[in-house]
Amino acid sequence: MAADGTRGGRGALIVVEGLDRAGKSSQCEFLHKSLQESGRSAKYIRFPDRTTAIGKLIDSYLRGQSQLDDHSIHLLFSANRWEIAQSIESDIAGGTNVIIDRYSYSGAVYSAAKGNPSLNLGWAWEPEIGLPKPDLCIFLSISSEEAAKRGGFGGERYENEAMQSRVRELFSSVFGMQRNTNIQTIDAGKSFEEVSQDISMVVNECIARVDPASPLGKLESIHGL
Ligand code: Z5A
Ligand code: MG
Asked: Where is each Thymidylate kinase-like domain found (predicted)?
């Protein structure tokens, strides 16, 4: 089955990015269910995928149970994507729409936001080059005031205001420099239903536009990083 429920054709790769508590996971789950209910083949993946051996190292680091050099943990996050890249490509080729909750953009900005002088955005993006390129990247934009209303930070690393405000600036730099990538910013401060309607609109447009004859792209270097 193809992305739009007809025979033949490939699926669409849809990435959802955003700051902490923007609603990425709840919206991805809802989108996944909606696509399936409309008869489309769909899969939901989230990064970090904490179930793999690499993912378990990441989980332990995020919970503060282990310490790792900034570059090492950065490369583990990237390796966690590479270990699943082939299966994403084959799902897409087989006509399944794949929804990804956080991807390379989170990978680059969270590591660069640490302010390590030998780990800037340019360095952080390099290991992402060659990974499957999204047909659509949705950025769920939320103000720190709106995010604060959704409950306090959890106990994980990076869940503090200073880090989040650097992440916000870096997301805007990375997305501002993207050429040839379909990035759609959606106001995630609205009600859940309003946000899901906005998401559904851009996703349906993307799925309708995916050219069955053109294969999934690969992430490229970002000019200016
Ligand atoms: N990280 C990294 O450094 N490098 C990488 O390569 C990757 C990630 C991939 C863990 O990520 C950390 O890893 C993260 C980035 C870093 N660090 N930080 N910060 P994660 O994805 O596992 O984090 P998470 O625990 O899933 O949190 P989250 O993604 O930040 O939350 P969310 O998915 O965006 O939000 P949510 O769980 O869907 O919703 C949050 C709450 O808001 C929940 O109670 C909802 O019911 C509520 N909600 C959702 N939408 C609404 C609306 N519209 N109105 C009101 N309330 C709402
Ligand atoms: Mg989440």
From this structure: 16-199
